[in-house]
């Protein structure tokens, strides 16, 4: 049986990948995540996804290795994981009542074969009262997530609408991933 490896410690990506009903291993990547922030967002996420996959694939050349990276972009500004609660509040206040983009890059490496792609999803937030933002921050949920929210958790109450792939916002565009794995010969 072909080995499938997720080069990520993200519990959200692991849950999404389980939906494929394929057994997989988790090997956390220690890739350098520094990039030129002047690159377009889609290039940033694909570059980082490929780096993550490459660091794991070096020792697992025979496996199908999946790397992924997600960023939130609002007004050409990349919103990563917040430094602290104040940073999370600033991000959420900025996103309140506005539409932002979530980019997820995915790279699959298998031997000398490579599939790399990205998804862009637009997410619109309701107008949020400061008390709502404070209550959400107290849950602790936004502190380890790009853009300071998790659409799959309590943060779902912030979201007015999305245009694009929900799972990409969570961290892994599973339908596109499935098709890419199939194209590469992974037994689906």
Automatic annotation (TrEMBL):
A Pfam family per the record: Maf
GO BP terms: namely:
nucleotide metabolic process
Q: Where in the cell is it found?
A: Cytoplasm
Q: Which residues form the active site?
A: 69 (proton acceptor)
Q: Which UniProt keywords apply?
A: Cytoplasm, Hydrolase, Nucleotide metabolism
Show which residues form the site (Important for substrate specificity): 12, 70, 152
According to the UniProt entry, what is the EC number of this protein?
A: 3.6.1.9
Enumerate the catalysed reactions. UTP + H2O = UMP + diphosphate + H(+); dTTP + H2O = dTMP + diphosphate + H(+)
MF terms from GO for this chain are: dTTP diphosphatase activity; UTP diphosphatase activity
Q: Which InterPro entries match?
A: ITPase-like_fam, Maf-like
Q: Name one GO cellular component term.
A: cytoplasm
Q: Report the cofactors.
A: a divalent metal cation
User: Which EC class is the enzyme in?
Assistant: hydrolase
* Principal cellular location given in the protein's record: cytoplasm
Hey, which family's this protein in? Answer: Belongs to the Maf family. YhdE subfamily.
Q: What does this protein do?
A: Nucleoside triphosphate pyrophosphatase that hydrolyzes dTTP and UTP. May have a dual role in cell division arrest and in preventing the incorporation of modified nucleotides into cellular nucleic acids.
Identification of the protein by name: dTTP/UTP pyrophosphatase
The organism encoding this protein is: Caldibacillus thermoamylovorans
Write the lineage as a comma-separated list. Bacteria, Bacillati, Bacillota, Bacilli, Bacillales
């Amino acid at each position: 049986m072909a080995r499938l490896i997720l080069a990520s410690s993200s519990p959200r990506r692991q849950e999404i990948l389980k939906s494929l009903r394929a057994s997989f291993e988790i090997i956390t990547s220690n890739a350098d995540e520094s990039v030129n922030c002047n690159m377009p967002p889609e290039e940033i996420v694909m570059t980082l996804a490929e780096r993550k996959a490459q660091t794991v694939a070096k020792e697992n050349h025979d496996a199908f290795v999946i790397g992924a990276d997600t960023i939130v972009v609002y007004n050409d500004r990349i919103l990563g994981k917040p430094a602290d609660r104040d940073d999370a509040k600033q991000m959420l206040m900025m996103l309140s009542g506005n539409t932002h983009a979530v980019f997820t890059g995915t790279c699959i490496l298998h031997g000398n074969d490579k599939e790399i792609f990205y998804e862009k999803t637009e997410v619109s937030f309701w107008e949020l009262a400061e008390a709502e933002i404070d209550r959400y921050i107290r849950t602790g949920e936004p502190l380890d997530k790009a853009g300071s929210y998790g659409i799959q958790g309590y943060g779902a109450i912030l979201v007015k609408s999305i245009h694009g792939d929900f799972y990409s916002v969570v961290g892994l565009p599973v339908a596109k991933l499935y098709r890419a794995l199939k194209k590469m010969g992974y037994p689906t």
